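ARCHIVE RECORD
Type: protein–small molecule complex
Small molecule: 4-nitrophenyl phosphate
Source of inputs: curated submission
Record status: active
Notes field left blank by submitter.
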Amino acid sequence: MKILFVCLGNICRSPLAEGILKQKLKEKNLIAEVESAGFESYHINEPPDPRAINQAEKHGIDISKNKCCLFTTEDFDRFDVIYVMDSSNYRDVQYFSRHDEDMEKVKYLLSVIDGKNKAVPDPYYGGESGFENVFDLINEACDKIIDLIKSKKETKIEL
Ligand code: 4NP
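STRUCTURE (tokenized, with ligand):
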């Protein structure tokens, strides 16, 4: 199972999602490949935003080693599922897609909770509380992804 999280900058939401899911996989002894990417070139190769690093650290997760990278068309071939944070990310991913099959892999992250395509809000221009809210939303979604991975393992059914 190969999972890619995508957001605009790859310095706030998607590295948090990557760190949270990796931590849960480790805790549950499950195996999956998890990465994250973005579309903004301002922060390439930089670590996540300090506010995201702090928020993760509060929960015992170290995302400080993550390096910002860009989404590419090849990612449609490298990953089984691509989770986006909002409609703008969805449109950006769509721009890189070659055909409908590529877009079949793309889901809104929060849709794993209740099937609705709600956004994980961009916390970049807000304060610390925005990062707490984002952490909680992503954390809940990652619990659901763990359930999906477990059920896939038990039933051997493709997600
Ligand atoms: P992210 O947040 O998409 O959650 O990583 C942002 C980070 C940087 C920018 C925008 C959003 N920016 O405009 O640089």
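CURATOR ANNOTATION: The longest strand covers residues 2-6.
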